[in-house]
Amino acid sequence: MLLQTLALLQLPLAAVSLAVSAVAATDPRHAPLLSWLERWGTELGPVTLGKSSVGAGYGAFASRDVTEGELLFSVPSTACVGLYDACGDADVGEALARLVVKGQGGATVALAGLLAKEWLCAGESGPRGPYLAMLPWDAAWPPEAEQEQEHCLWWSEAQVDALEGSPAYSDAVGIRDEVALAAKVIKSLIGASVRRAYKERGEPPWAVWRAEDDIERAVRGAFVSILTRSFTQEDGGDEEKRLVPLLDMLQHAAEPNVRHVQVSDGAAEGGGGAEGGGRQRVVVTARRPIAAGEELLNSYDGGELEPATFLTRFGFVPGRGVGEFVDSIREQDKGRLPFGFRIG
């Protein structure tokens, strides 16, 4: 799971406003996201967004030469999506909060419930719509976005069975079972809100009838985002899992060229953006000099995860194709005899 702890440091914040020209020069698919982030007080430095050169889906790139320590972007905590957003939801916040109190993964289920509810009820027009629209809601979403999502939550049973004999198999089965159980719980909590939203926007009766199927798919998509994109941050001494826009678009590298920290936000006193700057910000700076056009890269695991775990948690294997990795498991499996015995 993508759980990078952001250290709480007191650093001076060099503000760089998100210029309108930056949005105008961006791929149209990204313009709504950047406009939304601007309203929340996000600060964007020399960064552009586009098709990743090192991994599947999108990535971020330096738009000019960047010096070591230079600000790339900073995102206010209010633009992030976390547990307090889930528990504060007007419709289902109390029910989601009860999940959190129960423990045993309740916080993750609550966050997934909020993401699924907001996406199904409001879509791109919701309060976080432009950001949610960039998340992988199924193996082919967003449309024409080249996400190439290969997470095990989207796999068929046959694809999962192909991992048998590898540590990835039990991990994939466990993740899928946990998410299936979470989907049942979330259906009971957000189902009424989703059906009401469908009726209010004039969806046909059969769309309302299939709301539970939509919830199940949306919950899987929400868990894919949480597993692959979430960060653990501190808030008032407590740790919580959050999605951090822009930072979660950076691809993985064993040797990253960026660093990110959580800092006190001076904008808390005077605001920051149309909807407030929040008390804290996630600040991303250059770890070393970065050349113009070079992709910005983050480390997902600090070099600690095995390839099998990378596959089931993030949907890829560093330095190898998914098909190549699965084929290597099958090759090892050729020597297997019944009941777990092996040749040689």
TrEMBL record:
Record-linked InterPro entries: SET_dom, SET_dom_sf, SETD3_SETD6_MTase
Gene3D superfamilies recorded: set domain protein methyltransferase, domain 1 (3.90.1410.10)
Signal peptide: 1-25
GO terms for MF: protein-lysine N-methyltransferase activity
Keyword Mitochondrion in record: no
Keyword Repressor among record annotations: no
Keywords: Signal
Domain SET: 45-301
Protein name: SET domain-containing protein
Originating species: Emiliania huxleyi (strain CCMP1516)
